[in-house]
Structure prediction request, 920 residues.
Amino acid sequence: MKRFSQLAMPYIVWCVVLLLLPMLLIAFYSVTDDGNGIVSFSLTLRHFTKFFTDPDFLLILWRSLKIAFKTTVICVVLAYPVAYFISSNDDKTRNMLILIITLPTWINMLVRTYAWVGLLSNDGLISRIFSALGIGGGELLYTEGAVLLGMVYNLIPFMILQINTSLCKMDKSLLEAASDLGANGFQTFWRVTFPLSLPGVISGISLVFLPAVSSFFIPKLLGGGKYFLIGNVIENQFITVGEWNFGSAISIIMAAVMMLSMYLVRKIEKVNAQGDRD
Amino acid sequence: MKKNKHYFGKFFMILSLIFFYLPIVFVVLFSFNSSKSLTAFKGFSLKWYEKIFTSSNMMEALTTTVLVAIVATFVSTIVGTLAAVGLSKSKKIVRDLVLYINDFPIMNPEIVTAIGLMLFFVTLGIERGLGTMMLAHIAFCIPYVILSIMPKIRSLDPNLADAAMDLGASPWQALTKVIVPEIAPGIFSGALIAFTMSFDDFVISYFVTGRGVKNLSIMIYTMSKRVNPTINAVSSLIVAVITAGLIIVNIMPIVKEKSEAKRRKKAEEAGLDPDNIEPDNDGMKKLMAAAIIAVVGVIAIIFHGNGKGEFEGQVLHIYMPGEYLGETTISDFENATGAKVVVDEFDSNEQMYIKVANGDKYDLLIPSDYMVERLMQEERLQPLDQSKLKCWDDILTDCTNLAYDPGNVYSVPYMWGTVGICYDKTKVPIEDLEKDGFGIFNDPKYKNQLYLYDSERDEFMVALKYLGYSMNTDDPEELKEAYEWLLEVAENMGAEIVTDEIIDNMAQGRLPLGLMYSGDATYVLAENEDMGYFMPESGTNIWVDAMVIPENAENTELAYEFINYISSYDAAYGISEYVGYTSPNEEVFDEMSSEGGLFYGLDSYVPRSGNPKDEVFHYNEETRKIISEYWSKVKIAASNAK
Prediction:
């Protein structure tokens, strides 16, 4: 027994060194000053003050949250019907459909995002279709819409999967019970199916919202340097400005905001669930 | 009702499949395009694939990607399995704590994991490179392996191992013969996740990599600024590998089942008990062997020498701006010397500085004038051994002995030029330019019509020159005024702030105005005859990009050889011809710019002389800090203006 537990020892050490320590280092850098070393340093909170007293940084954080929020809402709305359809099939078809949906997610995000550059560019396929239909006109690439599209495209499969899983887990006899008790199709969906699939929606939200907030190459490739998000600010601090301490502070702030928003989402869900029970 | 709903669902399903697969089909399709366009298919061609397989950089990125993915998968699967088994038998508090930390890379945004690891390596003084990339990949792969094994272990009878040992198995046997086979599906899917995570990773690799080590994702990211169908070809290869992998994984169980059934049948026919025959693992072993041979083969191809030469087997590490070499510049040098050249590219001098200052060792750098001065002041360069340089007779005196490096003690010019305004002659009348000068960037008439270049130095040059100051001013008031002017531009003009993307975009005439380096403008002017290049009377920046040898260079002999080679007529011509930048080689310069020359008549190819307001940059640490801070605020303001 004891012998087996020793098998985990190397990994415990590894965890501390390569997973925990780097996070502590970010925290350390964020409250110290001068130089990228640990030999000489002085404690300071000025990086946090700098961030919170500059309306421009706050605006970028706000915009990142906003675009992530939009992405999440679009993902839920579009993913739900697809997940619902998938879950309504028999096992074999369902597995096939899931494979088809997940296949693109295995290909890296950079490649999938770059693919949209050609499609959205001025004389690309999409704008040609648009102008043939007589809608739009104007630029598609390098707009907020393009960034939003890139995010939805990259992240929606996760939402579909999560919702589908929770729909499949659902006890189907509940639906029969609902209709036996006189609920119509819409009522059954809204009062039974949807609340029961909420856990899937919630975990889908965390899989979509969090990466959307911190993404930096989607806005860079599809936003054409016009749509700076918080991830871009962090990348910029580390790669070109060289203010690692400030960059670390922004990362901490971003991580904190993310945790807070996920906490709120969970809280709201709990309150809802309790409200339903009462 | 039910049927209707189904149609609705099917319709949605089909739409989403189109949505998911359209970009991928598009990428693959255009990887076979014979023209460079990403929007019009001109004919079938394999040339972009040929480019991958003939480019040593690409092949190396491919090997790095595969090598790292294999090592990361192998190590993380073994360590992850052991850890998962061990943790399941550990005290609850230990297990919970470790699993909590284990979740970090999964729950944290990738960029946070990435900078954490980068800070870790830099702080500990570990040289970044292949090793750090592997460590990082293993670090973020193990958690996924553990995550996919844990549920399998939980569903295992906790007394299984004890039972095995009671029956006389050693702990090792109990582990490998009893536990591991039981949790094999979890291990297998964990390994698969690890492989694809590693194969696809960009963000973490981008931050933890060091000199000369790039994976495919990093390659794609650095190439994505210019229209480059090679990216499509690389992407298609990635798509092919991943799809093939997934199909094998999904079909394997079916095939296995079938062959199992066959075997049983055969055994029964032979009158044997089918359960007592060792399963047939030959196929699997052959497959493994083939995979290993393939990998070794690829590695061997990559690392084999480049023929005979004085420097055979040696490596030259260069760090230089992107898109700044001729088509055969590197391969010609490699063939002539037998050495191998590894080129890393940067977006900006500042980016290069951070890498070099944090310990990345290169043999040759190609920074701009003011950055040469900075590196000199900080004693990061070695004085050149003039006896080894054979190039001075060939180089134009216009770009030697300039203020940033008097006497060229540390640097040899690579390219030179000016900064100016590239404009669409059909949309921007020259009178406007003559009247406004750089002020045109703040002319409401051209709102949403212009590009700014993402270089703090050059944008402050524009502002300072427009305001009539020296671009080397260290007066805080003047800098502040320039900052406020740029802020006004950022807030009102809807400018796109770009780097190399500007080149193809202006060549296609997307927007009519942009701040541009003369060399890029030459390329644009040669591609699109509607385009012109204008240098305001208020003065501009005369710049020189120069080759320098860092103080910690490992192969200085080869660096000198390279400097002499670049300064020679053939190499200089090749580069200038391909990228459009002005060569400091006198013969090349004269030939290109005189009648009948490739760039004859293009204003941008011949740097202006005789305007007393034109200046060369000086380095000053204090102003750099101020400008850098201001510029990042301008960029943020520009993006907030929308």
